[in-house]
Amino acid sequence: MADGGGGVKVVGLTKRFGTVAAVDGIDIDMPSGEFFSMVGPSGCGKTTTLRMIAGFERPDEGQILLDGVDVAHVPPHRRSVNTVFQSYALFPHLTVGENVAFGMRYQKVPKVDIRRRVAEVLALVQLKGYEERRTTQLSGGQQQRVALARAIILNPKVLLLDEPLGALDARLRKDLQVELKTLQQELGITFVYVTHDQEEALTMSDRLAVMNGGKVEQVGTPQEVYDAPETRFVAEFLGVSNVLEGVCDGRGGITVGSFGLIAGAGALRESGTLRAVIRPERVVVEATGTSGPNRLPGMIERVVFVGSTSDIRVRLATGELVRSLVANGGAAAISYEQGTPVSVLLPVEGLRILHS
Ligand SMILES: Nc1ncnc2c1ncn2[C@@H]1O[C@H](COP(=O)(O)OP(=O)(O)OP(=O)(O)O)[C@@H](O)[C@H]1O
Ligand SMILES: [Mg+2]
User: Fold this and answer.
1) Is the shortest distance between the CB of 22 and ligand 1 below 6 Å?
2) CATH superfamily to which 240-353 belongs
3) Which is the most buried residue in 139, 168, 242, 297, by most CB within 10 A?
4) CB atoms near residue 51 (< 10 Å)
């Protein structure tokens, strides 16, 4: 298999289309062998970044380094990089084997070696023995595996994947997520994975970059960006976040309305009007009148059943709506009926002040 991964580094990378900066001076370091994801809303510049790394698009500014070498003047097929797209772009008139062998079109390799290599990569993507099938006789998931096989047949050091599971249904997506992650570990090469699905990015990646408007908002491990979002955008993009505005004292105290709270993370030294965030799974809804620090009075406004959990929405006395995620199954300690007055605990360690 591949002889180790390729490191990708982009420095000040910028691409403009007319006056719009689709990618606006981003710096990302993707060490070799890493499963790295770029996640962000539609139009934030993910595909454009990937196309520049692949060599299909020329940067206006900045550098792309593959294993430390600037590849500005290296054409796409000479970069040890290959791409898998959302639309598989398979040839309907060719068999599976011929489609996969197409990845070797620039190579002068004896037919028998090609045949052996095709069989090897088909086995890797769980399609052993499918050589003679027509691609039109395959399911969506199988077609995407053929596209993958075609992309890895040349042992690229870096595989770029642009929403490769975007066209598949939820169930198949989940299966292929696991397969892709396993494949990446087996090959030991760098995967640069683009998705707008935050859950997918969190479950599959070693590290990820959250992008917004052509810029990188934050880079980190899934746990870092989920637990310690640096901006409101990151907090809200990666799952639901409760956001409370208040006045901070520069020592971790934040006053929301007339209630004083203590935050345990984030910009604890900053003062003035700032925002604090807390994940719904950290918020505890208790019986009204429960006393103690970091509690606010409120009233149940709505309860949304979501299968294994319930999403409880409480209107605080300060006016804000706070959501709490409670596991279903056990007997509920209190009634969550609409209109019930409650006490909402925002635990210190879950409350995080965002930089201004
Ligand atoms: N060839 C082009 N000409 C003009 N504008 C473009 C071109 N390609 C992309 N853009 C613009 O650049 C911005 C970034 O596009 P890009 O395709 O990189 O977004 P994306 O993050 O991949 O979005 P999506 O999740 O929808 O695929 C968008 O505003 C888009 O309209
Ligand atoms: Mg895109």
Assistant:
1) yes
2) Nucleic acid-binding proteins (2.40.50.140)
3) 242
4) 19
